[in-house]
Amino acid sequence: MFPLLAGIGSGIKIASTFTAVKPPVITVTLTTYTVDPSQTDNTPLITASGFKLDNLNPRRHRVIAISRDLKTRFKFGSRVRITNAGRFNGVYVVRDLMNKRFRRKIDILINPKDKHTKLTNVIINKI
For the chain, does the N or the C end have fewer beta carbons within 10 angstroms? Predict the structure, then answer.
């Protein structure tokens, strides 16, 4: 709680308080994807936001795709923190969208030779 003072300099002091609001916790399923056209569209090196990926090391961009139901909360370019995801914990940038059939799901871009993963109860928060 933080006190607020009104009328400073006028001799009137009115104290009020407010509480910082924490963003809601969103729990999702995490999967991984690569730049393989069978896992994307016909332009695998360009994300839905128009971001161009490095074809030799796409993982270095720390890109995630989100399901469309999360699109209103996490806009393209939003930095997000992923927790409860083991080696995938960390900060990523929203740059891609998943197929409309998915809900409450995120996809982390990995390199073609990396092992695919699926995790549940992963937490995503906007930074």
Answer: N
Task: Give the mean pLDDT of the chain.
Answer: 87
Amino acid at 12: I
| 85 within 8 A of 30, measured Cβ to Cβ | yes
Distance CA 114, CA 32 (A): 9
**Integer distance in angstroms from the first to the last C-alpha of the chain?**
21
Please state the three-class secondary structure of the chain as a single string.
CEEEEECCCCCCCEEEEECCCCCCCEEEEEEEECCCCCCCCCCCCECCCCCECCCCCHHHHCEEEECHHHCCCCCCCCEEEEECCHHHCEEEEEEEECCCCCCCEEEEECCCCCCCCEEEEEEEEEC
pLDDT of 59-118, one tens digit each? 999 999 999 999 999 999 999 999 999 999 999 999 999 999 999 999 999 998 999 999
**Phi, psi dihedrals of residue 15, rounded to the nearest 5°:** -95, 140
Q: What is the pTM of this model?
A: 0.78
